[in-house]
Design goal:
Layout (H helix, E strand, L loop, with lengths): L1 E5 L3 H11 L3 E5 L15 E3 L2 H7 L2 E4 L6 H8 L7 E4 L6 H7 L3 E6 L9 E6 L5 H12 L2 E5 L5 H9 L1 H18 L4 H21 L4 H8 L6 H10 L2 H24 L1
Parallel strand pairs: 1-2, 1-4, 2-3, 4-5, 5-6, 7-8
Antiparallel strand pairs: 6-7
């Protein structure tokens, strides 16, 4: 199966690289010289979106949201009846469908595609069971995936699409905390990253709620409660909830703007 990735930027190049292990991949962007390294992974580079979409069985759009309509206009004649997956934040299926006569999937992965640990949520109304299977096989090359109702896509964008950015702020803060108390940089980085990874795994592999994990770590009168006391005083939870809320609202605004 041939897959065309239209817009090989940050996400598109990660997508092309991951897919290249299993599929024949063509990737496009205007400045293809920026992603020559993809050729080492067997990815064919082109500037012509229409030519790439024409020879592909499945097309993945990884251009910015404001470019989606223009790109669909370019490729509309050659994607009739084909599966077109859009990763663009905030662009509803309705808008995609009004631009071309294809079978559309609106999806939201995250940058952990690079290490095959993306969380990809997707919505579609157009696909048969067999086509859903095919699309899930594609998403599984990026990590985990789930099908959701489209009404949740903006919230997913605000949580797991943007999530690696929030988690990186938290990780950076942990590392700097480590530096403040005198840890060598490499030790602080490893300690922070492995702790976050381990906690996420604990949550996914047990039935424990995060509050229970937190409670398990707090030894009465011990060290952790002093750290937690400071965190609660800084309203960290409110800050993170506000971040998810703001990014979700922005995704909704993008969909309103595109309809104008
Ligand atoms: N970054 C992330 O973590 C995530 C991003 N997304 C979504 O993925 C999309 C891309 O985001 P991101 O990778 O961050 O953005 P980038 O700006 O890094 O990538 C977009 C790419 O599109 C290319 N491009 C622009 N115009 C065209 C065109 N007409 N034809 C072909 N290619 C074109 C650009 O390259 P050139 O200028 O050389 O053409 C650019 O490299 C967005 O819609 C975003 O919402 C979704 C989930 C996570
Ligand atoms: O910042 C953005 O708009 C994209 C969508 C989700 C993550 N990055």
């Amino acid at each position: 199966m041939k897959i065309a990735v239209i817009g090989a930027g940050t996400v598109g190049s990660a997508v092309a690289k991951a897919l290249s292990e299993k599929y024949e991949v063509i990737a496009t962007r205007r400045r293809i010289e920026k992603v020559r390294w993809l050729e080492k992974h067997g990815v064919k580079l082109m500037k012509d979106n229409k030519a790439a979409a024409e020879v592909a069985d499945v097309i993945i759009l990884t251009v910015k949201p404001n470019k989606v309509r223009k790109v669909l206009e370019e490729i509309r004649e050659v994607v009739k009846g084909k599966i077109v997956i859009s990763f663009a934040a905030g662009i509803p299926l309705k808008v995609l469908k009004s631009s071309a006569d294809a079978k559309f999937v609106r999806a939201m992965p995250n940058i952990a595609i690079l290490v095959k640990e993306s969380f990809t949520a997707y919505a579609t109304n157009d696909l048969s069971d067999e086509e859903i299977k095919l699309v899930e096989e594609i998403f599984e090359t990026f990590g985990k995936c789930i099908k959701i109702e489209e009404e949740y896509m903006d919230a997913i964008t605000g949580l797991s699409g943007s999530g690696p950015a929030y988690a990186s702020v938290f990780l950076e803060s942990l590392i700097y905390g480590g530096l403040k108390v005198g840890l060598p940089r490499d030790v602080a980085l490893l300690a922070a990253a492995q702790t976050l990874l381990g906690t996420a795994k604990l949550l996914l592999e047990t039935n424990l709620h995060p509050a229970q994990i937190r409670d398990m770590v707090i030894t009465p009168g011990g060290t952790t409660i002093d750290g937690i006391f400071e965190l609660e005083d800084s309203r960290v939870r409110t800050a993170i909830m506000k971040a998810v809320d703001a990014a979700t609202k922005k995704s909704k605004i993008l969909s309103l703007e595109i309809n104008r």
